[in-house]
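Our collaborator T.R. sent over the components below with a one-line note: 'Predict the complex.' Nothing else. No constraints on interfaces, no templates requested, no preferences about which chain binds where. So this is a plain run: every listed entity goes in together, and whatever single assembly comes back becomes the starting point for the next discussion.
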Amino acid sequence: MTLLRIEGLVVRHGLLTAVREVDLTVASGEVVALVGANGAGKSTLLHAVAGSLPVARGRVLLGGTDVTAVPAHQRVRAGISLVPEGRLLFPGLSVLENLLVGVPARSRRGADEASALPRGGWDVERVLDAFPLLARLRDRPAGLLSGGEQQATAIGRALVADPALLLLDEVSLGLSPAAVDVVYASLEAVLAGGVGVVLVEQDIERALRTATRVVCLLEGRVTRDVAREHADREEITRAYFGTGTEVAS
Amino acid sequence: MRLLDAVVQGCLLGGQYALFAAGLSLVFGVLKVVNLAHGDLGILAAFAAIGLAAGAGLPLALAVGVVLVGMLAVGAALHAGLLARTTGALPQISMIATFGLSVVIGNTLQEVFSADPRALDLGSFGTAGVTVGGISVGLLPAAVLAVAVAALTGLHLVLTRTAFGRRVRATADDPATAALVGVDARRTYLVVTALAVGLAGLAGIAYAASSLVTPLAGPSRLIFAFEAVVIGGLGSLWGTLVGAVVLGVAQSVGSVVDPSSGVLAGHLVFLAVLATRPAGLLARTRVRA
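Returned assembly:
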């Protein structure tokens, strides 16, 4: 089923238009990699879907329900969770407290129509099982964690809300290669759970290995939208840098 | 013995300052807003309690209960009507807005109640005391200190042990990210402001029970509360208690040295702390601890 449908989305930062007339769909169980150079509008698109950036034009539909005007905290209840670039943990809260911050929102989710969407069945216990690292660090203040530990906590925090759609923004940025391997290994359990995932990743090789579909953004527009099996690295690189691309209709 | 007596009386006085300062510290720690109407909101509660008890003839406990519930509602209205429109803008905007509210509350109270000083009559309890080791301890000031410690302890437990407290601390850290994990920052701010104004109401009632109060006494209460918060460390709850007691002791001991210089001594200690430890005495234990 179509989980997320974006129609004609335009997002502006002041006078700068960061996302231009973007159309995109994500199905349940699909992993869409958003690739593009810095400033292409990838993070802006994710934040607009999560509700933390206002939309100038267009619509965001989750499970057929228009959530364009729904505030960010209610979109979490509706089933959208974002792991933001830079992790943005609450440094004064322990790892466990960071995971639990979103829990009350989950308990109220029953009233939302979108709760009928397929989800992975995540809760705090399952997150601690899936991320043994977090179980060991549960009482440590998040501000004292390493980059990899912070990223695992940020992913766990997003999962505790049991999302239908998980948005991952640059999960490997600033991490050592070993930490990136650990983070992606832990993501496998998430990806196997049937939730829809939109992944922003600078590492094209890793994006191609993880995703089922690859969408290229250039200057706020979708320039390529292909299934992974039809995408090759050279073609993605051309779309990434805007050389010899064809604009998707 | 005279000095020891001054220290004890200063600690008791600190209880009153701590009650006023707790709400100020809470709002600053979470909303990052210095509520310049905080003292006036306390005085509003004091006059409301006096009006209900002495004017309308309600039993004292009922009058206090009605006023405290009313102050929670006033706090919620303060956020919805004023702070929600200014939070996130320049900090000066909310300061100017609350300064305006301070002027409105003070002058309205003066219009309604006149400038005559009044007090909340607690009967014999207001003047009762016990002598411990040659030092007289008033039951009312001791009760106010106990209420202040209980209020701060309760606030600490709520912030550190409850789901609401987690949401408050997350929102205080980063409201935009808190929203991304499902926290309604606006609602959290509203509840925090209601609690803070409720505490201001409790402080105002304690003040009116302890001494004569005038409609324009709010700004002086605000200054003492502000000094207590800064001495202890901005946004730190336990620092607020420590700061309030330090201020109370400084004023009390200052009065022993020169009866007319007690308040001045408090201001000098405040300046000394600002000069030597600008982050406050307990700067590390922020509102989240």
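Summary for T.R.: The beta strands of chain B are 129-132, 135-138.
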